[in-house]
């Protein structure tokens, strides 16, 4: 009975688990490892799952945590990335040009889809959970274990950081293009 | 002019909330009015809208073929590992019993009593004779907590990250819960330090009495070494 339910849940949610893992670690091979680890935790924890949150939110949380653990392990090996969540003030300069000044909307959309994956984890994760996974603020707050207010401001900041990143990228390309 | 800039700064956050359908309805009209008169904010609105709609249109990545079978294999392996671990632990338990029986015939009665305190007696009462003997190797820890339920949730959530640790939970009464854990030394150290971190996050002012006193309680954690 338990085995059937565990199997059913893993079968249903595995594509989601893989996709979330990929959003955290940004590498397909590593995302496979993270997805497997997450499934093990789901299997081990299912009997203890009490329904304090929805099953979907619980699965998101386990997967994100498995991804973060994976990154922490890598950091031990490489003394690498800072994945701590730090809030910094971000500015939108009124005098800056518009993204639309540089390229057509369709190309811009494609560039957004690429650049969002280059955002640091603390911005990328809340933003992707909101806009790509379409979770509510409350669900994101449960998944990331962050207060609701922090989630709201983090998502807003993430959009501005992404916009500034795009602007910098487009500006550089334009300057390089002009100098050729 | 300065006042206007401050207003525009405030509208920026509202634009984000508006795109997330999270702007209170009484503010929606005000924002829409502002957007119809302020070119700069309208431009920001269009750019932010483009960002959200672009991210929404990212297709879900294809799952690698074979992942499902890899997952099933990992789960199967883990189940077998657990089974052999219980057999191993059974052997350790029997050996410990034997050693302690021999040992206790040399050292007379007070041997066990010296390490007893009230919390230990409580665990003995609840977990029976075999466990009493292994308490010689235990790491004991007790927390006074403001909300028993909340802290139990934290502890059980953390346990999900430690699949190697076996757990037996005993609700002693409405104010106290006992957790009996079986873990390797390394796991138990890591577990206790992670738990301490989460506990400090929940009760940052650990030196002052807990804030929520509706449901005060005590959590006993007994960790036995594998």
Question: What descriptive keywords fit this protein?
Answer:
heterodimer; A: 180 residues; mainly alpha; 7 helices; B: alpha+beta; elongated
What is the CA-based Rg of chain A, rounded? 19 Å
- How many β-strands of chain B, per DSSP? 4
Share of helix of chain B, binned: 55-70%
Order of helices and strands of chain A: HHHHHHH
| First and last CA, distance of chain A | 68 Å
| Main structural class of chain B | alpha+beta
Summarize the main sheet of chain A. Answer: none
Structural class of chain A: mainly alpha
Mean pLDDT, all residues of chain B: 69
CA-based shape of chain A: elongated
What does the oligomeric state look like here?
Answer: heterodimer
Overall geometry of chain B? elongated
Strand line-up of the largest beta sheet of chain B: 1-4-3-2
Note the main sheet of chain B.
Answer: 4 strands, mixed
N→C terminal distance of chain B:
71 Å
Strand content of chain B: 5-15%
Radius of gyration of chain B: 29 Å
Describe this structure in words.
The complex is a heterodimer of chains A (about 180) and B (about 230). Chain A has seven helices and no strands. Chain A is mainly alpha-helical and about 180 residues long. The model of chain B is unreliable at about 100-140 and about 205-215 (pLDDT under 50). A four-stranded mixed sheet of chain B has the order 1-4-3-2, with helices on both faces. Helices cover about 60% and strands about 15% of the residues of chain B. In chain B, strand 3, helix 9 (about 185-200) and strand 4 (about 215-225) form a beta-alpha-beta unit. By secondary structure, chain B is α+β, with helices and mostly antiparallel strands. Chain B has nine helices and four strands, in the order H-H-H-H-H-H-H-E-H-E-E-H-E. Classes of the chains: A mainly alpha (about 180), B alpha+beta (about 230).
